[in-house]
Amino acid sequence: MPIAKGESWGQPGGLPRHGVVVRSDAEAREIVTAARRAGEPIPPLGLLGGDLCRTLGGTGDEARLRSEEAMQLPVDLGAVLVDGRLHWFVAHVVARRGWWRGRVVAAMNAEFIGKWDVAPRGHPNDGRLDVLDADLPFDERLQVRARLKLGTHVPHPRIDERHQSAVQIDLERPTPVYLDGVRLDPAKSLSIRVEPDALICVV
Predict the structure, then answer these.
(1) In terms of domains, do 23 and 68 share one?
(2) Same domain for 70 and 93
(3) How far is the C-alpha of 192 from the C-alpha of 82, rounded, in Å?
(4) Are residues 109 and 176 located together in one domain of the fold?
(5) How many separate domains does the chain show?
(6) Which of 12, 50, 76, 112 has its CA 20 to 30 A from that of 122?
């Protein structure tokens, strides 16, 4: 069950023997994709790096993952049809031609993209994605960029911000799509949804 406001989250426990250590969101997505394509359970993921790891408070200490200090956390998973082809993501899906021009759409399961605090009000186990959609003039992009590190770029009158379990996005023209930082071919439509409690992540 997705977390409710005021509830405790996760439980103490190290990475099980069948768990897999990953050092980036892209590595985590590869493990998820392989399991989903094979119709097998997704193994617990020990996170050492990436935006989801940072969101969950991971330290990057591999010894901690197998210690009594580690925490096992249930986490949602993102699924997206990119022009009809199914993919998964652990942290975020972003559609953009560039950061400085054109429309930018981001569906966030994690709070961060690199140094940017993109979804400061989201939670990776609330059963929803934070979806931000904007096409800003250049001067406003400069202002937003300056506020992204602190997560103070929202609310913004020109940034459409939604918290949804599923969303359909028409990109109007072919736009490069990035899943957990990995670029796919340009696409025109994204159909995105959440798979609640699909992952166990250890930090």
Answers:
(1) yes
(2) no
(3) 9
(4) yes
(5) 2
(6) 12
Which pLDDT tens digit goes with each residue over 36-70? 999 999 999 999 999 999 999 999 999 999 999 99
Give the rounded distance of the alpha carbon of 114 from its chain centre. 11
Backbone angles phi, psi at 129, to 5 degrees: -105, 150
Query: Does residue 176 share a domain with residue 89?
Result: yes
> Exposed e or buried b for every residue in 151-161, given b needs 16+ CB within 10 A?
eebbebeebeb
- pLDDT tens digits for 130-142? 999 988 888 877 8
Lookup: tokens for 96: 């953009």
Strands annotated E in the chain: 11-12, 20-22, 45-47, 71-82, 85-89, 92-96, 104-108, 112-113, 116-117, 129-134, 160-164, 166-179, 182-202
Tokens representing residue 110 in the block = 């994690």
Amino acid at 6: G
Residue 70 and residue 107 share a domain: no
* Domain containing residue 119: 78-196
Give the C-alpha separation, 190 to 107, whole Å: 10
Q: Are residues 118 and 50 in the same domain?
A: no
Residue 145 sits in a domain of what CATH number? 2.60.200.40
Distance in angstroms between the alpha carbons of the first and the last residue of the chain: 20
CA–CA distance, 147 with 160 (Å, rounded to integer):
16
> Can you read off the two tokens belonging to residue 172?
């109007």
Q: How far is it, in rounded angstroms, from Cα 155 to Cα 174?
A: 28
